[in-house]
Design a protein that fits this description.
The chain is of the alpha+beta class. The chain contains six helices and twelve strands.
């Protein structure tokens, strides 16, 4: 009987350590994230599930740690996940994904949808999408403002972030630059892309959650975008 208790105790300790390790990894190293909106199309589609590198930017790292470890600051072109600036101001937690176009000290301007940084036009043809969304932009009455913006000098320790779907993104053109302390990590790669109905991220009920789970299980083989599996995010 004593041996049985010892075995169960070892199992419990192992599970506890595993849970702590997974929690630590999720908070400080790698986190999962899914795309609920079309603001980053075609780079990221609704239903893409990502791994996010939470370690790379090391917000609390010292200069020595940055030299010894694979840490760096946010670079132009990085696709970053961050806490919503607007939600943060009302003490809410909403994660957002956008592309960083300018860093502290840069001057950014948009003229007729052409982006320039420090007076040099950005070659964004590989990822920028200027198509109008299905609603024709009616939900974004400030579309003209988005097409012509600035010039704006980005403050130190701030970033200017925009969605790749330029006419369907609520981003730094509207809510301002992003403070560095709100950045959570860099998008790494897509581990699963699901083309079926995606959760809106709002809790409704256990019944709704069970229905969503069952629908996902049934449609998993046919709705999974297999060609996007393990695709690097760039």
């Amino acid at each position: 009987m004593a041996d049985d208790r010892s075995v169960w105790r070892e199992y419990a300790e192992a599970l506890l350590i595993a849970a702590i390790f997974l929690r630590f990894t999720n908070v400080f190293v790698v986190q999962t994230f899914y795309i609920p909106s079309g603001s980053m199309e075609k780079t990221l589609l609704v239903g893409d599930h990502l791994f996010v590198n939470r370690f790379i930017y090391g917000p609390a790292a010292t200069d020595l740690e940055r030299k010894l470890l694979p840490l760096r600051s946010v670079n132009r072109g990085d696709i970053v996940v961050f806490r919503s600036k607007e939600a943060h101001e009302i003490e809410n937690t909403v994660d957002v994904v956008k592309r960083c176009l300018a860093v502290g000290g840069d001057t950014l301007a948009v003229a007729d949808n052409v982006v320039s940084i420090n007076g040099k036009v950005v070659d964004d043809h590989l990822y920028a999408n200027y198509e109008l969304p299905d609603h024709g932009g009616a939900e974004n009455p400030r579309l003209d403002e988005a097409s012509n913006f600035g010039p704006l000098e980005v403050d130190p320790d701030h970033y200017f972030c925009m969605g790749d779907h330029r006419n369907n993104s609520w981003d730094s053109r509207f809510w301002g630059t992003l403070p560095s302390q709100l950045v959570k990590g860099r998008a790494l790669f897509i581990y699963w892309s699901y083309g079926g109905k995606t959760s809106d991220g709002v809790w409704h009920s256990w019944g709704q959650k069970v229905r969503e789970l069952l629908e996902t299980l049934v449609t998993f083989p046919t709705k999974t975008r297999w060609e996007r599996t393990f695709r690097l995010v760039r």
